[in-house]
Structure formats: C-alpha cells, structure tokens
Amino acid sequence: MNEFMDSIATALNSNSVISLFLVIGLGLALGNVKLAGFSLGSSAVMFVALAFGQLGLTIPPAIKNLGVILFVYAVGLQVGPRFFHTIRRNGITYLCIALLSLLSGMASIVIIGKAIGIPADLGIGAFAGALTSTPGLAAALDVLDENTSVSVGFGIAYLFGVIGVVLFVQTIANKQCTKDEVEAERNAPVEASSNLKLKAFIVTNPNCTGKPLIEIDLHSMTRANITRIVRNSQEFMAYDTTAFQLNDIVHAVGTERELRKLEHIIGKETTPIELDKNKEIAVRDVFVSSPRITGKRLKDLEVLELFGVRLTRLRRDEIDIVPTGDTTMEIGDLIRVAGTTDDCERFVQIAGQQERRIHETNLLAMCAGITLGGYVGAYTFNLPGGMTFNLGLAGGPMLVAILISHAGRIGPISTRVPYAAKYLCREIGLVFFLAAAGAEAGDSFVEMFQSYGVQIFLLGAAATTVSMFSAYLLGRYLFRLSRLASLGVVCGSMTSTPALGIAASSVDSDTPAIAYASTYPLALVLVTLISQILASVL
With DSSP H G I counted as helix, E B as strand and the rest as coil, what are the percentages for the chain, rounded to 5? Predict the structure, then answer.
C-alpha cells in the first residue's frame, strides 16, 4: 500500500505544474455543483487540494506567494475606487458595523478557543474560515510562516461560514416588509449610492427662469447634469447660454440624492417626455482610447465650448460617475455624450474608438505597484508593549493597490487596469493560492480533523453566528437602517457574495446590494488586518 501511495506521489510531483492545474480544474468543477442552491465556488479548489495533499502532492511555495500577491493586489484594485468614496459617504456607519462585527467574531474565537483548548493557529484559521475570507487566510499564513494548521482550521470552519450566512439572510429576507420598514428604507442613508438615474423636472421656480445656466451655476448646488430641455414639444440641448422658462421639462442625470437637490432648485419631478426621434440631437456612448484627452480635466478640455457636446455620465471600473469640470479622463472610460449628430461625431474622433487600447494593461505600473507593495508589507511597525507588526505579502500589496487605484494615475502614468484583467488576475491568484495552501495542509488535515475537527467546526460556527448577528443588530437597531439595508450590511461584513445573491433574489429591491457594496470594501480590508493582528498576538 505504501509503495502504491509513493508511486502516486511520484507521478503527481514529476510535473507539479500540470498537477497544479489538475487540482484547480477538479476544484472548479466541484465548485460549480449546486446542492439545495449552495455551491462552494472557487473555494472548492482548497478541498480538492487537501485531498491531493494526502496523496503526497507538493506545490512549490513560490506558487502560493505568487497567488497571494496577485489575488490581494487585484482585490485592492477592485475595491480602491469605492473605498474612500464609501468612507466619505457612509464611513462612520459602515465602518463601525464592519469593525464591531468582526471584533465580536474575533473575541468569540479567542474566548471559546481558549476555553476548549484549541491551538491558536487552528483558531486563527477558523476565524478566516468563519468569515469566508481568503485574504484573511493569506494574511494569517504570511505572519505565521506558512503554518499548515491555519489552512486546516480555515477549511473546517469555511463550510458553515458559507451556509450559515446564506440561511440567516434567506430567513430574514423572506419576511414581509411592514409599512414602517418601507418608510425606513426610503429614508435610509444607503440611498447615497453611485447608481445614476435619469429623471425629468418641470421648471416652476421663477428664480431660475430668464437666466443662463452659467449664471445659475447648478453644479455649485448639485452634481446632477442637465442633458436636454423640452419646450413646447421642441427638444434641444442645454448649453451654458441656455435660459430656463417656466414649464420647461428638464431631463437630468445623477444619483438619487443629487437629483433630489435639483428638484428643490428648479421644480417638481415629472414624467420624462419621449418625443419622436430628433435628428438634430444624438446620444453616443464612446470608450476613451485617445492619449490626446487622457489625464486631462474636462474643464481644461473645454468639451462643451469646443465640441458643443455635453458629457452626461461616465462609467469607470464598474462605477457610474456624474462628470464635472474636475473629472479627469482615463483610457477605458465609457462616457455618454449628447449633442448634435455632427458634434458628437467630431468628439468621438477626438476621444478615439480603438478597442485594443481600452483592453491594454499598463504592466509597468502594475509591476511597480506590486514591488512597492512588497516593500511596504516587509516594513516592521513597532507596537506598544514591545510587539512588532508588518502588513506582509497580503496587506502591503493590497494597501498600495487601494491607494493607486483610488488615485487613478501617478504623474503621467495611468494605473488603470481593465476589469477583465483585474478579474483574471484575481481568479488566477486565488486558485493558485488555494491549491498551494490546501496541498501543503493536506498531509496533516486528517490528523488535525480527528483531534479537533468537531471543536473547530463549532468554534467557526460560533464566530460566524456572533459576527452576523452583531452586524444585523447594529445596523437594524443602533444605526436605524432598514431591514433590507441591514441584510446588505451583514453580507458585506461577512464578505459573503452567495448570501447577497440570496437577498437579491428574495426581495424586489437593490437596497441590499447598495449596502453590501458600501460595506464590503471596508470589511475586506479590516478582516485582513485583524487576521494579521490575531496571528501576531496569539
């Protein structure tokens, strides 16, 4: 029997790269299997790797380090554009909920773990697994010098971390809204989302009539953009010299909050008017690919003055933005322009439509960011009590990625990475890391499971339960969020995308998704830092 197992291990390790992709392929196939609506997704790669680790498969440590760096750097690029926006908009509320719920989960791990005699490394892995946080696992492994017990704890606690949150959200989401809850949702702070809407208003404020738009200076009061005006069944563009008249129908684009400000300024909301297609007014969506306008602000480009078109909305990194004079154009931006057919065509020629360019990734900026992240991660911070702390390979690249993706560029160098490239980088890094970590832990998994399996599962279940109830109760009763917003906060604090999917399919509202998007970046960063702190002090 030993000779047979040795022959399997030899065959697997004779070409570890092929074995790596075999593990990843089998894991992804298993992750696509759904049972009662549940699936493991990419995390199934770790469970397959644990089995192959039992068979003797070893994957070079460099593969795991590469996977960690690519994964966390891509995650940082993904959350960076939203991170500081989230803090500015709803920072105190969502930061407090995410932090307190995660700390409550950490406290349950420490208290219960010590009470039942769970080794610290297994408890740290259980914490990351209870929160289904792969970045947390990567951070803990980095601090603990690749301790395989951390991965074992993660694998055992992960299952309830997924199922427990999904069942909780499904139970709450299936309850009927009361009138009070509907009203609370209407007034909830999550309405300050980045989702743009098109609305129409009828001019009833006499103080806004007879004055050119440049004199009214609407952008000093609201970030909504006027797109067109309908007057006496005639439709025309809104220029700086255009003056409102009473009963004009004004079409505008902006967030719910900014459009509400515009309503207070010019007049009440009305139904948008759709006239017969006006040959003089065209609306074009164009991808920016020309270096002639990238890195420059709209007010410096003088788009309206030189081209006669108005930019009504901009989409960058899956985020909708209302463009203003201070907005900087970047390669890959999807912008919507409105104007006469000829003016739109002239602007398109300037903006460029070279599809190849919008998919290009600046590898120089990416390599520089990862290198800087490695040095930042290696820097040692001195903490009170003689303790030291560093961000490691998980925290350093993530922090740098958040900062540079938020900035958008460093001097003349654009740091933008196309969505497809970020997604591929994130997924490849994730499966590389999971496969390597799982194979490394596989040799001791059975022994650890036999000794501590039930205790770790219960420990992880306790951490999951405490964290998600803390997030829900804080959001619902302390910060007075609506029930649906509180569900989104739970999904975001627990970094649980499957639970968000259940919430979105159970209720006819985008409130959970908005709250999730506002909380998730904060929780993702916090759980990584807390995992490192936990690994450093235990």
Answer: 65, 10, 25
